[in-house]
Amino acid sequence: MSGVSYMVGVIDGKNLLRLSRMIYRVSRGYACIKEMVSFEFEPLRIMQEKIVLIIYPTSRTSTL
Hints:
This protein is an alpha+beta fold and 64 residues long. The chain is 27% helix and 38% strand. The protein has one domain (3-58). The protein contains 2 helices and 3 strands; from the N terminus they run E-H-E-H-E. The radius of gyration is 13 Å and the shape is elongated.
């Protein structure tokens, strides 16, 4: 069984590039990470945190 899965989370804006690189390496280029810029939530903007969406292919074990 194959398909696409996703995760949504909040991360400190300074670590976004680091997370992107790590996800790319772990998934061998099959996953992507996108920052959700259209979603505005005042406390997150003040703390400079980002909402990210990670999309990755699903395997039999459903793990990234």
